[in-house]
Amino acid sequence: MAWRLAKSLIVLRSEVDAAAPGRSTASDGTIGDDDHQGTASDHNPNGAGVVCAIDFTHDPDSGADMHRFAEHIKQDNSIAVKYVIWNRRIWSKARDGEGWRAYGGSNPHTRHMHVSAGVGPDGQSTGPYDITSPWGIEETFGGGDLIGLKLGDSGERVKGLQGTLRYAGYDPGEVDGNYGSKTSAAVLKMRKAQGSDVADGDNFTGWAYAQLMRAMAKKY
Ligand SMILES: [Zn+2]
Fold first, then answer.
1. I need a surface site. Which of 30, 113, 126, 175 has the fewest CB within 10 A?
2. Which of 77-86, 145-154, 182-191, 209-218 has the lowest mean pLDDT?
3. For residue 44, how far is its CA from the centre of ligand 1 (angstroms)?
4. pTM of the entire structure?
5. Secondary structure of the chain as H, E, C letters
């Protein structure tokens, strides 16, 4: 049977790709495999031949951090979204007031995040699944935006911060994409050198970014 992916999910996928270039797609999925076909699943085409579910591989080193993306999609609560399953929990638009709920399906969804679009029963989505408004993933997590990073974060944006700290003369240790104690110490040293009296380097705020740009300007 001919099928196509819901347009809202094509937009979502392009945003995830942009936010995490080179991400692993090992556990990605759209159309249901044989296991799905006998079950009610949004991975099976609806009556109009549209697949209203997509899976994204958790690959935090590349920036595809499903802990953050799942939380963002819940907060954003876009018109198109039906529900999100990630890490043994489910959030659905229809039961938004209950927040994250325990998910007891046979697949715990710890390797990939599942997103369904539209409204109605699994495999029979109707409604706004073809809406193409942005999901905010690219805007929030994409590009070279370093502002808002914090201790414990990982991915390409942290690598960007570490590389920039190094260029500015503040060694963050290995440029490994992990915002750990060495990166925090380098941020603190850089900020103090610009006259800041912050107590630690655990948060990379907008003002910290301004100070890093100042440090770069001084050095070069
Ligand atoms: Zn799925």
1. 126
2. 145-154
3. 10
4. 0.68
5. CCCEECHHHHHHHHHHHHHCCCCCCCCCECCCCHHHHCCCCCCCCCCCCEECEEEEECEHHHCECHHHHHHHHHHHCCCCEEEEEECCEEEEHHHHHHCCEECCCCCCCCCEEEEEECECCCCCCECCCCCCCCCCHHHHHCCCCCCCEECCCECHHHHHHHHHHHHCCCCCCCCCCECCHHHHHHHHHHHHHCCCCCCCCCEECHHHHHHHHHHHHHHC
